[in-house]
Amino acid sequence: MRELVTVGSFCPNETCADYGKVEEGNLIRYGKSNEGRQRFQCKTCRQTFNERKGTLFYNRKTEEKDSLECLALLAEGSRISRISRAKGIKEDTILSFLREAADPAEQVEAILLNDYRISRVQIDGLWTYVGREKRLTNR
Ligand SMILES: [Zn+2]
User: Fold this and answer.
1) How far apart are CA 31 and CA 20, in angstroms?
2) Out of 7, 35, 52, 72, which could bridge 116 as a Cys pair, Cβ 3.0 to 4.6 Å?
3) For the whole prediction, is pTM greater than 0.70?
4) How far apart are CA 8 and CA 77, in angstroms?
5) Cα 26 to ligand 1 centroid, rounded to whole Å
6) Dist. CA 40 → ligand 1 center (Å)
7) Which residues make Cβ contacts (< 8 Å) with residue 104, sequence separation at least 6?
8) Over the stretch 106-138, which tens digit does the pLDDT of each residue have?
């Protein structure tokens, strides 16, 4: 399975030819945002974005894999209680994964689609489950 990556090593623009490709060399540093965040530009699609966009669970690296596996299981229709028992993770923790996933939703979707072979329909079901509207439009 691929490691999770943050913006700066891949382009988060879904319409870009290099979308989701890691370490392709298409991203360059592009100054800082008003809040002092590193900005990047994709040389392929010319879109710019800051490091926050597309950064997944950036403070909780050790939990990333667990989190994605739980989300994949949920998308496949498993109950939280079952996942909790199977993986030895507290239900509260799984719920916190869900809450976090609903924020950088587009990157979570990309990983579930590509690495976990979860279908679009299943992902839509997951977001319904999370109870948050999808926020896939540009911010
Ligand atoms: Zn791009």
Assistant:
1) 22
2) 72
3) no
4) 33
5) 7
6) 10
7) 53, 54, 55, 56, 57
8) 777 877 888 888 888 888 887 776 665 444 443
DSSP letters, 29-53, are EEEE-TTS-EEEEETTT--EEETTT
pLDDT at 130: 67
The tens digit of pLDDT for each residue in 17-63 reads: 887 677 778 888 888 877 787 888 889 999 888 765 554 443 344 56
**Which residue carries 């991203």 as its tokens?**
27
Distance 12 CA to ligand 1 centre (A): 7
**For residue 78, what are the contacts with CB-CB under 8 A and spacing of at least 6?**
86
Measured in Å, residue 44 CA sits from the centre of ligand 1 at 5
pLDDT tens digits, one per residue of 85-97: 988 888 888 888 8
- Ligand 1: centre distance to CA 123 (Å): 24
Q: Determine the distance separating the centroid of ligand 1 and the alpha carbon of 110, expressed in angstroms.
A: 15
